[in-house]
Structure formats: structure tokens, C-alpha cells
Amino acid sequence: MNLKQAQYVKTIAECGSITAAAKKLFVSQPSLSQMLRQLEQETGLPIFDRSTSPMRLTYAGEKYLHAAERMLAANAELESQLREIRQEHAGRLRLGISVTRAMQVMPLVLPVFQQQYPNVILELTEKGSAHLEELLRMGNIDLALAALESTSPSLAYELIEKETIGILAGRDTAAARQYPSGTALPLEAVCRENFVCLTKGHSSRITQDKLFRRCGITPNVLLETDALEVGRRVALEAGACMLLPSIYIDDYCRQRRGSFFPLKDYENHRHFYACYRKDEFVPRYVRDFIQITTQVLGGGESPQTMRAQAGM
To answer: Which of 207, 210, 261, 262 is the most exposed place for a label (fewest CB within 10 A)?
Structure first.
């Protein structure tokens, strides 16, 4: 069965005669009769009882029409979905982001985005920033929100937020006792402290390893963890240090009397970017996802205001 045959049989059944169906379908009566004969030859069964007026479906014809109606309904649904996709109101967004950034970004961005694009399916891949760039190049994700150096020639980068790298120090560290929080310090000033590190693959770990090598320091690693939140809490409670961006210094760190020291004489080149492949079309909903994220993290309109505007 093809769509034309399905539509023709359905119309004949509705009209009760080939003549009336041909007029409705804007085809000639002989060609419609020929199609029906060919169809009945292919199935080996009569579809209509021609001895009655109006023509009635045979038992086989009833089964055929039932399948035809399902096929036509499925095709209509597919056409509707494709029309939505062509108009960029529906689709799928495969987003790559680190677990820590997802905790920060998704609760703020997703409600606004979902209100604007209820028919876009969001698929989340949570990996370290170093892995996300490769997943993007391989085509496994459509958009990455990650701390990167924006160096790949095959990717486009849009800056969302600049990051300042510094040292989070627990209140029991020598550095926290000696220097006021906010003091710019060289890495050598904390070389004797214990360190909590993220596992390899995280952008902070990449930066940390480069800095330690540059300074000729072999850190005393107290703990390696895949979760930044675990690292922060251990560093604050165990009197250790941790290298991380300033965006993760929040009320919890201040309540635990942690100190943050921006790195002295260090220019960070890894910032938080939205990146996607240059050679592919970027749907409107992807561009809007980037815009919403930039506005929320950039201190612009609140998510509540953006939701209200999206509903207008």
C-alpha cells in the first residue's frame, strides 16, 4: 500500500462509487477503476462489493481501509511535525555541559527555554569540558556549554562568561590565616598546602596542571574527585586548597569562612563558551538557548521576567 492507494480507497468508501470518488479526487474514472483492479489483483481479494449501490467494502476491504486510515493519519502527523521543524518551533537539542555547570545553569535556563519551545526535546550529556569539545567535533552533541580556550578551527565560540582562576583556601590553611580574602597571590604562596583536585578531563584540572608545571611545583594532593562540589566542601572543612574559577565562590564558601585568592600574574584564557560546529545550520531554538544562558549568567533579566516575556 502506498499513500495514493490509501487515499483512493478511503475516498471510494466515503463516496460509495468510483464515479463520485473520481470527481472528488480530480482524476478520471477509468484511471481510478484501473487502480482499484490492480490493487485487487495484488491483494488477491476484492476490496469492494460492486453488486451493491452504493458500493460496500468487503471484509478484506474493511481491513484494508483500517490500515489505510492509520497510514494516512501517521503521514498527516509526520507532515505536521516536519512543518514545525521547518519553522524551527520543534526539534531536538543535544546539549553537552559539565555536571557542576549544569547545576548552576539548568535550573535557571530550562524553565524559560521550555516555555518558549515546548516541542523541543532536550537531551543532556554531562561530561568534563575537555571531553565536550571532542564530542561536538564528532557530532555526538549539537551544543556545548564549557570552559574552553576557543582554539578549534572547526567550531564557533560565543563567550557567555569570563572566568577568573584563583585559590579557594579553607579557614585552617596558613594562607587563610596570613592573607585577607581577595588578595592576589602567586601559586608559590600556597605550595606547602594540601590540595584537593578534580580528576583529569575537567577544565580546572587542565589549568591547574599547567600552572604547577610552570611553577615547578608538585602539589601534595589530599583528594582527587570528579565532583567540584565534593572538592569545595573537603577543601573548606579539611583545611586544604583548591584551584577553581571565582564563579564557584558563593554563600556556602563565605559561611564556612573560606578565602579566595585570585592568581597573581596569571591571565586566564579558558572562559565559559557556547560552542557549535561551524559547518552546520544552527536552528533558532539553539540560538535562543545560548541567548537565554548569556542573559541569565550575565546578570541581565531575571528568569521570572524572561518567563513572563516568553508567555506574552
So the answer is: 210
